[in-house]
Predict the structure.
Amino acid sequence: MTASEATMGTEGGTTLVIGEALMDVVVTADGSREYPGGSPMNVSAGLALLEVPTTFLTRLGADDRGNRVRQRLDDAGVTLAAGSVDQLATSTATATIDASGAASYQFDVEWNLPPEVNPHGVKHLHFGSIAALLSPGAAKVEQWVEAVRASATVSYDPNIRPQFLADRHATLDAVRRHVSASDVVKASLEDVHWLCPGRTAAEVAVEWMSRGPSLVVVTDGANGAVAACTAGMVTIAALSVPVADTIGAGDAFMSGLIAALGERGYLGTGRALLKNIPLDIVTDVANSATLCAALTVGKSGATPPTLAELHAVNPA
């Protein structure tokens, strides 16, 4: 299956990821380097590499940068949803690194989606990051979530980027809506600190659970994660591994979590099961997600593991 534009309808249902794809541009005294990026794009690639049928709805330009992003998706086995390519330039995030190693950032992001919403064939929908908060596309993301919820499960990752968020009050309202509309929520401790200053990961996980999700996970890098469900809360230890860099670790955790839940029957028509997921299963799927993140930080860039790599480390 290639990343050429395609309609949805994979047998058994596809996991649909909605969100931004862009080109990360890193500028140093030695020149510049470009890498395909964007949290939702990384999640879609991570899912496909774990052999989860995955469709990605995004916005790319019909330009060289857009072609490189499409090649990245194609290499991973992601299907690009129809309408994801337009005639505007592909979005960029430019990081300029000075002599001390400090980075300054400049973003040129256009975000919109086609007006059509067709949830047919979607087993699970994942959304979040810039795309869930940046107009005009954010409103269309919410339309997709609303349309899909009747027949599919939903996961959300705030992945807060403050530089895009001029109106804090509106952002908090939107995040609350997204949490309430989701079955699974994964956030980083950095997200929690921005959204809920002065509160702990456990406190926020419990409060978000009360809004409707069946599972809330808050990650804290090398300090592990906490996961809350109806049955209670568990603490997940991080794995001690050599670190090349942490780029894409949170996205690999997200894709690993979705894949593990789906493999065990807790997504799609398994919403009722997810509502009563036992603590031992939560521990199991969170440990699998943690392993995906650990394998990612051991390699440079956002390079999530394949299913074969995951099984080589954890045959179970």
